[in-house]
Structures are given as structure tokens and as C-alpha cells.
Amino acid sequence: MKKLNLPLFSILMLVLFTLPLQSISARDVPIKSEDPSDYNIPTNGTRAPVRIALEVTQNDADVTLNFLYPVGAAEVSIENGNGDVVYQEGVDTYSTLDASIDTQNLDGGVYTLKINYGSTNLVGEFEL
What we know:
1 helix; four-stranded antiparallel β-sheet; alpha+beta
């Protein structure tokens, strides 16, 4: 009978049991177009729905952006309740599709997340 490699098996078990717990604590951050005219979609079928190339989740330590495919350079900013920019960064989605924003140093309250790439302007709110 072949011996089991205990350190490798232990690491594998730890990963398999830890990943589902991280998913449980994450919350989606709903995002939408910043342009209110985008909500007035005609019902006659002349305009196709647009899929947003981004998923945003929040947990206790950060907000994570997962671009579904490269969109070029994206500008990401966070504004506090007073409209002050508390975070701003450029993300090159050709280099990486994921970006993580550390929110541990931000005060509690409602924040606005803005993501701009190409002609797309998205906005979402999250609370700490």
C-alpha cells in the first residue's frame, strides 16, 4: 500500500475547507451605470442589454474588483459620504483582471465606488 504524503494532504484539506468560508463572508457590491439615461431602455427591442464586465465583492478587510475580461485602463475611485475622494487608482486590465482595495483604514459609513473605463462609467455604494 502506498504511503500518503501527510504535509501535502494537510495543505490540500486546509485549502478545501477554508475557501468556502471566505465565500460566505463576502458580499456583492451592486454596480450600475452612472448615466441615468441608461435606465430608460426602450421596450420595442431596439436596444440590446449590456453586460457589465466586472464583479465587485466586499468583505471585512477589502473591496475586490474582478474584471471578467480585459477592458484596457480602468480608473477606480472611492468617495466618502461628503463626496471627498478617499481612494483613487488606475488598473491596467491587460496586466491583471483583479484589484483589491484595502478598506480597513476607512471610517465607518456609506461610500461610493466609481469605475470608469473606455466610455463606461459605473457607480456602486457600499457600507463599512
